[in-house]
Amino acid sequence: MIRTLMGSVREYKLASFLAPIFVIGEVAMEVAIPYLMALMIDNGFSSENLNYIMKIGVIMLVCAIIGLLCGVLSGHYAAIASAGLAKNLRSDLYFKIQEFSFENIDKFSTASLVTRLTTDITNVQNAYQMIIRMLIRAPIMMIFSLIMAFMINAQLSVIFVLAIPVLAIALYFMMTRAHKYFKRLFTVYDRMNTVVQENLIGIRTVKAYVRENEENKKFRETSQGLKDNSIAAEKILILTQPAMFFMVDLCTIVCAWLGASLIIQKTMTTGELMSLMTYTVQILTSMMAVSMVLVQCVMAKASGDRIVEVLHEESMLRNPQEPVMEVRDGSIDFENVSFGYKGGEDKYILNNVNLHFKSGSVIGILGGTGSSKSSLISLIPRLYDVKKGTVKVGGVDVRDYDIESLREKVAMVLQKNELFSGTIRSNLKWGNEDATDEDLDRVCEIAQASEFIDNFEEGYDTHIEQGGRNVSGGQKQRLCIARALLKDPKILILDDSTSAVDMATDAKIRSGFEKYIPDTTKIIVAQRVASVEHADMIVVLDEGNVVDVGTHSELMDKSRIYREVYESQQKGGQEE
């Protein structure tokens, strides 16, 4: 884990090196000052030597200034190094997620990935900053102070030799016990993020169905679980600080009592006792600092494990060693294809599919909810890999293509249309960054989007809110179709993406396809027969099985399912 995380330090290695160097300088100055104070008391004040007092005072002032500069610089470089590590980790994690297949993303869940990109990386950042400052400073301060303490009085310094192992054992016990609770805590964070995300995304549905009380109940239960796990972890750690203070006070009392006896016996001076008391505080506060860092490290370890889990995850989809870079045409072949999201053969949702679509043809795919229409088409641009059989595009197995080259030639308008915050122009240019206004006009004309864009005062520069909240469902669908057309694809897939437009507009869109993109294979997934009845081939799916294939007239003669759907929709349309 540590090696993987440290691999993200990269250009911040120098800052990570300079921070501890300046910490050492800061500590050296802090340790020197009590010793100089002892010399001033014993050799200056006792003999009333003003020159000696001034000389030592100037040296102490110089040490204090050097210590201040070292402290500022160590903090500066530690902040740069930790923030840089967090930036690189966030980038590495984000770019890694971009490589994931849908199957990888399904494994972690969106909410969990968001938590890892935010909370977990922040925990690692805080721990790294404390490690290169406090975890360097505290042991060095302890070692330097112990050396100075033994130089002053070896007998009294034995107290620290006895106290330090006791505290170290107590800290180790508490840290190892707390780790499992923090690991569980971040799982609860994932759950809370899921609840909040679902509520905010579906807030209109929540309010429409007056489900605020139920959503509040879900949030309270998750929040209570977060609180309970936090308390369980903190119950173990709460003993850390009191135990440290107890040891500091105990050692101070023992040093004062024994030191006073040694002064009376004239085997120790007042200045030596004062400096020894200072070193007592430095040694034991260093132990307290170590305990604080270790608490943060326990949290960071749990977070680091979760980050590394994503970084080590290999995408289920990979390019072959010598990928095919060009898609010849839009022909598609499903050969004995079976597919399932997880599990064995008994979990397959597509079974032994054999289909052949000619390049430039119009294909309709019809089926009820849960018939695996969307799963079937997701295999074409290789969003998922088949479990059995082969999917070919342009006569080549999709697994032999360069993934990016394949997807550049397969445009999908998904069932759930997504627009992003920005302008209509910026959203459309997802299809082609170099598209001109003439290109935008052309595709918007085909997608029947021009009629409402022209009515907007700012046209293509009209602002789109996140998720396209300020346009209607039909407008959103038409913008997404236009965006897909800008890719100039060999294959265009419409996954129930005209469901929100009226029948007349739907017909105009299909007419535009026939006129302007005749060589593009067009796959229309629909539940409405009217959207596919003019297709060259219609595929009827039922529970993951291809039950019938043919034209509209052929299916009306031989397919019971198709005929029932058509008649029910015709009847419903007449009644309406």
What does this 3D model show about the protein?
The protein has 576 residues and is an alpha/beta fold. Helix content is 64%, strand content 11%. The strands form 3 sheets. The protein has a 6-stranded mixed beta sheet. The chain has a 4-stranded antiparallel beta sheet with strand order 2-1-4-5, with no helix packed on it. α2 (13-45) packs antiparallel against α10 (270-311). The longest helix has 50 residues, at 50-99. The radius of gyration is 35 Å and the shape is elongated. The model has no long low-confidence stretch (mean pLDDT 84).
Structure, briefly:
By secondary structure, the protein is of the alpha/beta class. It has 19 helices and twelve strands.
Write the SSE topology.
Blueprint: H1 2-6, H2 13-45, H3 50-99, H4 102-108, H5 110-152, H6 154-201, H7 203-208, H8 212-237, H9 240-264, H10 270-311, E1 332-339, E2 350-357, E3 362-367, H11 373-378, E4 388-393, E5 396-397, H12 403-408, E6 410-413, E7 422-423, H13 424-428, H14 437-446, H15 450-453, E8 463-464, H16 473-485, E9 491-495, H17 503-516, E10 521-526, E11 537-542, E12 545-550, H18 552-558, H19 560-575
Parallel strand pairs: 3-10, 3-11, 6-9, 9-10
Antiparallel strand pairs: 1-2, 1-4, 4-5, 7-8, 11-12
Helix pairs in contact: 2-3, 2-5, 2-10, 3-5, 5-6, 5-10, 6-8, 6-9, 6-10, 9-10, 14-16, 18-19
Average of pLDDT: 84
Helix share bin? 55-70%
Q: Rounded to an integer, what's the Rg over CA atoms?
A: 35 Å
Overall 3D shape: elongated
- Percentage of residues in DSSP E strands: 5-15%
Question: How far apart are the first and last residues' alpha carbons, in Å?
Answer: 63 Å
Q: Structural class of the helix and strand makeup?
A: alpha/beta
Total of helices: 19
Going across the biggest sheet, name each strand in turn: 6-9-10-3-11-12
Number of strands: 12
